[in-house]
Amino acid sequence: MTREEKSAISHRGRALKLLLEALRNG
User: Fold this and answer.
1) Which domain does 15 fall in, by range?
2) Is the pTM of this model over 0.85?
3) How confident is the model at residue 1 (pLDDT cuts 50, 70, 90)?
């Protein structure tokens, strides 16, 4: 796996975490 792919995956994971937290708090 390339560094670009890893960073893209981690970025997506972070966005999903923020979305889940927002839904939980909302």
Assistant:
1) 1-25
2) no
3) confident
